[in-house]
Design brief:
With 95 residues, the chain is an alpha/beta fold. It has one domain: Response regulator (Rossmann fold, 3-Layer(aba) Sandwich). The protein is built from four helices and three strands, in the order αβαβαβα. The chain has a three-stranded parallel beta sheet with strand order 1-2-3, with helices on both faces. Strand 1, helix 2 and strand 2 form a beta-alpha-beta unit. The protein is globular. The chain starts with 13 loop residues before the first helix and ends with a helix.
């Protein structure tokens, strides 16, 4: 589909890493190893550089409402088919 994927694993510096990578769309799990994905999203929405970034939250539990309240652009429930994710990404980037 022509997408470049970057995996960020440094949870303590995720905000700085997102700014450095400057992605068009971010796919983030609600439950991360050391941080709460919804908390990271809330921080992003308050940041002048990151507040407009497109974010898709994901979880094996239905966290659609919580994700929406935190400022997610969309939510996808695991497990999901690759085509589902591609369709959401395409919509968010205007393809």
């Amino acid at each position: 589909e022509g997408f470049q994927v970057v995996k960020l694993e440094k949870f303590d510096t995720v905000i700085e890493e997102i700014k450095k990578e400057d992605p068009d769309v971010i796919l983030m799990d609600v439950h991360l190893k050391t941080n709460d994905g919804l908390e990271i999203l809330s921080v992003m929405r308050k940041d002048s550089v990151l507040k407009e970034k497109k974010v898709i939250m994901s979880s094996g539990m239905d966290k659609h409402y919580e994700s929406q309240q935190a400022g997610a652009d969309d939510f996808i429930m695991k497990p999901y088919m690759p085509d589902e994710l591609i369709n959401i990404v395409n919509r968010l980037v205007g393809r």
